[in-house]
């Protein structure tokens, strides 16, 4: 009778690696199938701040809105201090998120204070609801569906590893580091699958947007910090703040994270490539 617990150490590690990889692949496919409709709707995203939230969350959208306000002369950045030009500037703001930022900085504050600000996040709440309605970010039902499969696969992989670990220790073997590392890695990847802040359709939409606006990215060095068009916010929303030209926007270094010696970023989006059809699920994105 087939019993992987009877395998030798190296044999079991190979078996466990294959089993874990196949399990992750299958769970990812199941979740993606659930989160991408057979006939995806035509999604119209014409607000750069909504796109920014989809790509990287509320804090990213707030930073991009701040950059837009600085480029339009409504907000002043001195070192790492922000202050609204004057009270009349609020009337010139185009969206609620911009008005919230200008109101906050009527009294001078630090750039870092934007992050995690509950009042500013409240101004982004309608974007989050809109993205949920479009099935681009997970609702509670999506998280519940993910959780079901994460628990099943976690019990399989975690239980098997614990059983083999117990057998090894009972027989006096202590060289179990590779098994612990492998099991921890698989469980971590499952956790990342559960917590991913976009649905599979959201991942696909971001890839479609990047394809759709490749031309805008190609001429990024020509985009000036004059606030006359929506291109500044749109470019940063789709490709990130680093896509803005440091020559034309010398102040953006204040918005970029300090480089770290090492980082780990796991993404199970498996999004469609540009070759699969730019804008396939995102017709009319941007303006």
How would you describe the overall organization of this protein?
With about 290 residues, this protein is mainly alpha-helical. The chain has two domains: about 5-35 and about 140-195; about 50-135 and about 200-275, no CATH class. It has helices at about 10-35, 50-55, 60-70, 95-105, 120, 125-135, 140-170, 175-195, 200-210, 215-220, 230-240; strands at about 75-80, 80-85, 110. A three-stranded antiparallel β-sheet has the order 1-2-3. Strand 1 and strand 2 (about 80-85) form a beta hairpin. Helix 2 (about 50-55) packs antiparallel against helix 3, helix 2 (about 50-55) packs parallel to helix 11 (about 230-240) and helix 3 packs across helix 4 (about 95-105). Mean pLDDT is about 85; it is low at about 260-275. Keywords: Membrane, Transmembrane, Transmembrane helix.
Low-confidence stretches: 261-276
Round the Cα radius of gyration to an integer and report it: 23 Å
Return the average pLDDT rounded to an integer. 87
**In angstroms, what separates the terminal alpha carbons?**
63 Å
Number of domains: 2
What is the chain-wise order of helices and strands? HHHEEHEHHHHHHH
Q: What structural class should be given to the helix and strand makeup? A: mainly alpha
Using the alpha-carbon principal axes, give the shape: elongated
The beta-strand count equals 3
Question: What count of helical segments does DSSP give?
Answer: 11
